[in-house]
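Re: that chain you flagged

S.,

Sorry for the slow reply, it's been a week of failed gels. I finally had a moment to sit down with the sequence you sent. For the record, here it is as I used it:
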Amino acid sequence: MGQLLYESMTGPQAADALDEHLAERGPALERLRSALLAHGRDPATMLDGSLVSVAPLWAWITSLAGKLGVDPRPLAEDPTRPTWPSWARHATLVDPHPPAETLALVDGFASYLARIITAEVPEARWESGHHRINDFPLLNRPEASTAEEALVTVAAEVDCFDVGLREDIVAGHPALVEWLIAELSERDAVKSVHR
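Prediction finished late last night. Pasting the structure tokens below so you have them in one place:
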């Protein structure tokens, strides 16, 4: 699909982008397993499918991403761009941008997190982001959601990733949310946690 931005996609293009994203989930998780092995980590332990595995995995990824730094080339000159996950190719990234290895790690993490979420919430399904508001910031981006709206949203910001939970999850599972906040607040790579 090239580098067409999500917000510029028509309905059929967004559907194709969603199919592309879903086809990447298995391979992204396998690349994450390979990266863990290459760095002396046990994928079976790190990716055990539990909620408590999420924070340590993210801490490892952000630590490694910090060591990798940013790609020294401008976006227009980065020859790795065609190998990026589709969500990175179809989103607006700015310089300085993360290297392909960091994007692959984040992609693997997103696949792992989606697997945990969809196991915990069986009625969740993948769809293209939409909303009654026309300038919805996640328009046409792949998201796991229930009939009402996305359970979890992840948006690439200039200097970070913004992760959000649907409001009824907060209301229905306050202990889990408090635990997640406490876990994430202790991580060096987490800049802020908002309720």
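What I noticed first: Residues 1 and 16 are 8 Å apart (CA to CA).

Talk soon,
D.
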